[in-house]
Structure prediction request, 146 residues.
Amino acid sequence: GIVVDRVIADYAAGAVERLVEAAQAADLLVVEGQGALAHPAYSGVTTSILHGSAPDALVMCHEAGREAIHGYESFDIPPLPEYVDIYERLAAPISDASVVAGMLNTRHLDDSEAADAVAGYSESLGAPATDPVRHGVPDEVLDAIL
Prediction:
């Protein structure tokens, strides 16, 4: 792996691409994102990872209840359908990736609230979702990713 935010910006997408190419023999390759496209300070890193990895599919990750960028609270997180569209449109010049599943961090919620939040996230996303720490990753989510 690499610490992509320590790579000179002009080379970040290429550095990610090199790692992906080196792992092409793998049956499944997971590239973890960093930051967010709506993040005022780190969206460039996120874009480099998105373009350099040229993904086949995207998994949308979020923290339940978060409405603004952490540390930049004056920057709202776009509504989920709009945010999915932003990711898919930005990926489009490089790959035909679409959001196929969601992961939701529900650590600040009780069990009932967490279940409701995951169900609502899945419905808004139009794809299966889970909190992988609290609920694991059910077959429905794995099937969507694979």
Summary: Helices lie at 12-22, 43-53, 80-91, 111-125, 132-135, 139-145. Residues 64 and 106 are 5 Å apart (CA to CA). The longest strand covers residues 99-105. The chain has two domains: 1-54, 56-145.
